[in-house]
Specification:
Blueprint: E1 15-21, H1 28-44, E2 48-54, H2 55-60, E3 68-73, H3 83-93, E4 97-102, H4 103-110, E5 117-120, E6 136-139, E7 143-146, E8 149-152, H5 157-170, H6 172-182, H7 197-202, H8 207-218, H9 226-233, H10 237-248, H11 252-270, H12 275-281, H13 287-298, H14 302-312
Parallel strand pairs: 1-2, 1-3, 3-4, 4-8, 5-6
Antiparallel strand pairs: 7-8
Helix pairs in contact: 1-5, 1-6, 5-6, 8-9, 11-13
């Protein structure tokens, strides 16, 4: 399921969203989420009901019907899963779509309600995930949607997460108006990676894996072969493939291709290089191969991606 599937929530009725702040009121995770949504609420009017609660307020309320409910917490404020917090988690889970932002994602996983779900967790909390890796699937992405479950690593990514929700729920025009109001030029996609997430998670335990990913990131324009990468990090091809499959859920070649395509998408949105130049800069000697691979991963062609940028401008 993708963020595009959220569009049906806003049809024919006011969309009701609950945000529960279990951290500091001035944290970046909270401000980055709530400010774009409040601007959207003013623009949409009666079609969007945004309800903001502190944890104490949410504990004292009765159950209500929410289309989306999110629990938000600063990553530096760990909290034991006491009975009141579990009750709030239960209320959030009753919503059509629900999840967490920042440290709250870890709380949800600790509560056992994210079993088998792909989650985006703040990289700084990766050291606390040993007991939940069998219950949730950690990804290094900025934010995720998996079925009815939403998660965001928090921090500055909360802004991208909120703007992606706005686009999915109310359309590109509303998102563009919010971006203009907040002076935001670019929205990062959900599958962009936290820059230090892989190193934080695997650097000590799997240095060979971390080294392989670093080689890929440093050789986007002239990609290395899987055999070359394996030789450079001192592994056999089979050992390298086993590491990628076990920890990243992908083969090295597929992971490398996605890295190059992510870079290509960034260049299409942030530079004026031609589509051919972008393809060459990301290791694609064939324009048709670049277009096909890009479309398979993102659902649109490089030309459509560039046109979207021009339309937004």
């Amino acid at each position: 399921m993708s963020f595009a599937d959220l569009t049906r929530l806003a049809r024919g009725q006011p969309l009701r969203m609950l945000l529960v702040n279990a951290g500091e009121a001035d944290s970046l995770s909270w401000a980055g989420l709530v400010q774009p949504l409040r601007v959207a609420q003013r623009l949409v009017g009666h079609g969007f009901e945004l309800h903001v609660r502190t944890l104490a307020q949410a504990i004292g309320e009765s159950d209500e019907d929410w289309h989306i409910a999110l629990l938000v917490a600063d990553e530096h404020l760990p909290r034991p899963l006491d009975a009141p917090l579990r009750a709030v988690i239960g209320r959030c889970r009753a919503a059509g779509y629900w999840g967490g932002v920042g440290a709250a994602v870890l709380w949800l996983a600790d509560a056992g309600v994210m079993g088998g779900i792909r989650i985006a967790l703040p990289w700084a909390l990766y050291a606390d995930t040993e007991e939940i890796t069998e219950r949730a699937i950690l990804t290094p992405h900025l934010f995720e949607i998996d079925g009815r479950h939403l998660s965001c690593c928090g921090g500055a990514a909360s802004i991208d997460f909120a703007l992606t929700l706005i686009d999915s729920l109310f359309g590109a025009a509303t998102q563009a108006a919010v971006k203009e109001t907040l002076c935001i030029e670019r929205v990062r996609s959900h599958d962009e990676r936290q820059r230090v997430a892989l190193q934080a998670r695997f650097g000590a335990l799997q240095p060979k894996l971390s080294e392989a990913v670093t080689l890929m990131e440093a050789n986007i324009e002239e990609p290395l072969s899987t055999d070359d990468i394996a030789n450079l990090v001192g592994l056999s091809r089979r050992q390298l493939e086993r590491l990628f499959k076990q920890y990243l859920g992908s083969l090295p070649s597929r992971y490398y291709l996605e890295l190059r395509l992510q870079r290509a998408r960034q260049l299409l949105l942030e530079t004026n290089h031609s589509i051919v130049q972008v393809g060459l800069m990301c290791g694609f000697s064939s324009g048709s191969h670049f277009s096909t691979a890009f479309g398979t991963l993102f659902g649109n062609t490089p030309r459509e991606e560039r046109q979207r940028k021009l339309a937004a401008a």
